[in-house]
Design brief:
Distance between the termini: 24 Å
Number of helices: 8
Radius of gyration: 19 Å
Helix content: 25-40%
Largest sheet: 5 strands, parallel
Number of strands: 12
Order of helices and strands: EEHEHEEHHHEEHEEEEEHH
Length: 280
């Protein structure tokens, strides 16, 4: 959710929402493209798989930077697992936190996060997380989000959990904010459109194949793809493949969290890590 500089990375698959390039839609995508008011030959700058918190954040920020954006989402509505988030956004050093007189820092947040993860977390990634959390909250507030309730939640030594006024669920508010911002920017968001294959040529990602309930199967060529399709907690076959003792476990994940993007990325040559660290 943090603002990011424009990157040039043609021909590469990225799983972080910060990539800008030049996809182009093939003729068989005519119906979907026409619905967005463009012809199939018009180039887009960013193609994103997934309309959860990560995907919508990438879409909005790309649009802020002047890019044309297409988002494909297999479910009938945006939100992903983000919409089920019930706690708050932990962020150190925000203006709201400071206004309450809370003395906090990125270093304290880093320690709390590492401790909460039993010191198994990747320190570099945790530092990226805690350093970007504050700017992310400020960014969402600037988009019109309500994260003005700052409180103390389990695992934190300081009151840094940012939630809607009155302590309401944070996930629906984040999704509402991002989806509204995406619509205001006229971003082309295609629900009920599943990415079925990441296309490559000589080791380079060239786009994706999608299947739409409305428009059938078509291809979107791209110099770069953002894979923000989310996790796999709702796919027990995949969960138990990595952690056999979880065979038959129920899940708190939304029904679409079946790991499609991870499987597609692996088939395209991506290396998966930490697959046994699963949120059931």
């Amino acid at each position: 959710m943090q603002r990011r500089k424009l990157l040039s990375a043609a021909g590469t698959l990225f799983a972080a929402p910060a990539l800008f390039a030049a996809p182009a839609v093939e003729p068989e995508a005519k119906a979907a493209s026409d619905a967005a008011g463009r012809t199939p030959q018009d180039p887009d700058d960013v193609l994103i798989i997934g309309a959860g918190g990560a995907g919508l954040s990438a879409a909005v920020e790309a649009a802020n930077l002047g890019a044309k954006v297409v988002v494909v989402e297999k479910m009938g509505m945006p939100g992903g697992n983000t919409i089920r988030a019930a706690g708050g956004l932990n962020a150190a050093g925000t203006a709201l936190q400071q206004a309450k007189g809370t003395k906090d820092s990125v270093e304290i947040a880093y320690f709390d996060t590492m401790k909460g993860g039993h010191w198994k977390n990747d320190p570099e990634l945790v530092r990226t997380l805690v350093a970007g959390a504050g700017p992310s909250v400020e960014w969402l507030l600037a988009l019109g989000g309500d994260l003005r309730d700052v409180g103390l939640l389990a695992g934190a030594s300081k009151a840094r959990a940012h939630r809607p006024t009155g302590g309401a669920l944070v996930g629906p508010e984040v999704v509402r904010t991002l989806y509204t911002a995406a619509k205001d920017r006229k971003i082309d968001m295609r629900m009920n459109t599943e990415a079925t294959k990441i296309l490559t040529d000589d080791g380079k990602v060239t786009g994706i194949q999608v299947k739409s309930k409305k428009d059938g199967t078509y291809t979107i060529h791209a110099k770069a793809v953002v894979d923000a399709a989310g996790g796999f907690g709702a796919n027990n076959d995949l969960v138990s493949k990595y952690v056999p003792r979880l065979k038959g476990f129920a899940t708190t994940n939304h029904p679409g969290a079946t790991g499609d993007g991870l499987v597609l990325a692996e088939k395209a040559g991506a290396q998966l890590i930490d697959m046994t660290e699963i949120q059931t």
